[in-house]
Amino acid sequence: MACSENSDTALSSTVMPQYTDVAVWPLAQYHNKLNPAMNESMPILTFKGQTYSCEPGETVLGCLLRHQQAIPHGCLAGVCQSCCLQSHRVPTERLVEAQQGLSEAQCRNGEFLACQLPADHSLEVSLPAQKPWHTATLARSEQLSDTVWRLEFDSSLRWQPGQYFSLSLNGIDTRCYSAALPASQGPLVFHIQRHPEGRLSDALCRLSAGDTLQLQGPFGDFRLLEDSTPRRLLLIGSGTGLAPLLAIAGAATEDDQYDNIVLLRCARGKTGLYESPELSRLINKGIHIETALWDDNDSLESTLRALAPLRGDHVYLSGSARFVQQFERRCFMHGASRSDIHKEMFLDFSQTTA
Ligand code: FES
User: Fold this and answer.
1) What mean pLDDT is predicted for residues 135-152?
2) Among 41-45, 262-266, 345-349, which is the least confidently predicted range?
């Protein structure tokens, strides 16, 4: 049940501003006095000057969504960062678990992932100042495999190879997708894995040229690092996790820093592999491409053994958390330094309704 000030006839809109400025706990206690039925220990969320009761076991995001508040959200698993909120009135140690993956600046700013913070204390929250949403028009849609689509947008936005954008059709449901081309080499391209039961991916794959969507970004620190020492660049990705690596490889071909670029594309089975114009472009540039099935231990090991030793290589891993963790261990065992291994982990949406 909402316990917003609007729903309480004892509080008129003319006096509301003075209550929105008081501390969170006094506001909750004031409410409890007005509404004796309200459990005094019930945590209260304050958002945009309204207050909302929390139910046991729910998160801050869950509470606000239950009260029909329009909070952007996506994975519900602490990965996509689309549910970021901000609070200045909470001890920082309470936020730590809900700040995994956020930048230092965001943490200093009191930002946290609302899907990861239990709503077990009263709290005043707000939407952080966000990058603006842009409307983008689809120039071309192409089906690359049974489950993967390529969407190409004409856009004046700039991004670093490896970065990602939040995509949305309604400003509420969002998903993050990495650009598959460097901004210097062409349009804004995303590879979308379609999940038939998904809320957004299915709708994205049904878009036609001329349709529009909202996008926000770019975001992310997973990008080509500058280094004066010539090195080998080893890029290992699975499924559509390959997209940011295609952009990084494209940018690396313009950079003398890398005298040898190897792209290892992996899939759980042969049907998980897909071709794309971005991959063809790299093949035409002479990049060394390897393919491996990552559930086939022998095939993987022989591929990595042929590339070893990896000492001194810059290694970029992109895919599901399980994939990235497995390859981080394998690359380390074959000589890569942990400080030279860069990781981008995606939620495995095959287990969800993405
Ligand atoms: S919805 Fe919270 S991180 Fe994705």
Assistant:
1) 96
2) 345-349
Location of each CATH 2.40.30.10 domain in the chain: 148-219
CATH classification for the domain delimited by 5-125, as one of 3.10.20.30, 3.10.50.40, 3.40.367.20, 3.40.50.300: 3.10.20.30
Report how far residue 346's alpha carbon sits from residue 182's, in angstroms, rounded to the nearest whole number.
Answer: 20
% helix / strand / coil in the chain, to the nearest 5?
A: 30, 30, 40
Question: Omega before 277 cis (within 30°)?
Answer: no
In CATH, the architecture of 231-351 is 3-Layer(aba) Sandwich (3.40)
pLDDT tens for residues 207-242? 999 999 999 889 888 888 877 676 899 999 999 999
CA-CA distance, 112 to 91, in Å (whole number)? 12
- CA–CA separation, 237 and 192 (whole Å): 15
Round to whole Å and give the CA distance between 209 and 207. Answer: 7
Gap from CA of 102 to ligand 1 centroid (Å)? 12
* pLDDT band at residue 23 using 50, 70 and 90 as cut-offs: very low
- ipTM of the complex in this document: 0.99
Decide: 51 and 4 in contact? Cβ < 8 Å: yes
Measured in Å, residue 95 CA sits from the centre of ligand 1 at 15
Which range (23-32, 39-48, 181-190) has the least confidence?
23-32
More confident: 228 or 189: 189
Q: Is ligand 1 within 6 A of the CB of residue 79?
A: yes
- Alpha-carbon gap, residue 102 to 115, rounded angstroms: 14
Cβ(3) – ligand 1 distance below 6 Å: no
pLDDT of 350 strictly over 70: no
Question: Contact 213/136 with Cβ under 8 angstroms?
Answer: yes
Question: Do the strands 123-125 and 44-47 form a parallel or antiparallel pair, or are they unpaired?
Answer: parallel
CATH fold, domain 148-219, is Elongation Factor Tu (Ef-tu); domain 3 (2.40.30)
Ligand 1 near 347 CB (within 6 A):
no
